[in-house]
Target: tRNA (N6-threonylcarbamoyladenosine(37)-N6)-methyltransferase TrmO
Amino acid sequence: MVRRDEIRPGEVAVEPPAATDAGLVFIGRIRTPWTDRMDCPRQGRRDGPVCRIELFAPWDGGLDGLERYASIEVLYWLDRSRRDLLRQSPKSDGTSRGTFSLRSPVRPNPIGTSLVTLVGIAGGVVSVRGLDCLDGTPLIDLKPDRCGFTPLAPRQPGDDDVDTGRAGVPPA
Amino acid sequence: MVRRDEIRPGEVAVEPPAATDAGLVFIGRIRTPWTDRMDCPRQGRRDGPVCRIELFAPWDGGLDGLERYASIEVLYWLDRSRRDLLRQSPKSDGTSRGTFSLRSPVRPNPIGTSLVTLVGIAGGVVSVRGLDCLDGTPLIDLKPDRCGFTPLAPRQPGDDDVDTGRAGVPPA
Model:
């Protein structure tokens, strides 16, 4: 989040295809203490300030049960990010690396993911610690942290698929 | 992934708003051994079969540096999932819980996230273990696992924001 919109020495931009393969609906808004990209933490911390995740109707009706989990995964839309960089230079020093080797907000689909600590849920608002995004960031999903979640659905055949030395991948 | 498209007793559907707040571009395709939703694992396992993540051009040019990470976060689009359920019944037993308390593929923005083990990268293809999605699933992002990633960018003021007892959240 240290970038305005410049392209730095060593970075590579492409003319990206239109982003029309699927559509998102914003299901809420995230309230944090950070109102300028230059002030955001580079990564959230579990002892950071409490932030509020405000769900829009009707999605506030889907929170029941989330209070069982101490740790929650949050997906949000980094709506100020450019989407066209293939290589980036986080240090602005002329060296660059591929976008997919970074957790930079600049990526073809600017989705941020954070693991946060649940503080409380009340009235369609989920309070958490561990976020690093700008105040007003659109929310796209909440899920229990996979580490604390045991599937409730009945077992499936694929649950037992482990690597057995056979080719596990269908031919291209 | 155990659902065809039925609504089960105890579940609650809504008329969802149009999903037009933001657009995604599919940046690749995931090849797995599972060709039917009824066969997929409920969650990926790190000793599972090797799967191939095939990047489309020009995005295959953004992989440089990803080989440094043993563990990678994968985001994909669960393109067969309904998006309108607020409450779901994973056990089909008449009881239900809010969508956001489940890791079900059925959610307003059907994005799956997995942490996978890197096996290798060659020619725009990333081979990994730990996925649980259908063969052909569209790819939307790859990132280093946050646990193994140290930000390269210069420090930001927010990096030091910890909870100090002050109100950490701006007024609504």
In short: Chain B has a mean pLDDT of 91. Chain B touches chain A through 97 residues (CB under 8 Å). The beta strands of chain B are 12-13, 22-24, 28-31, 50-55, 71-77, 85-88, 97-98, 111-122, 125-129, 137-144. The longest strand of chain B covers residues 111-122.
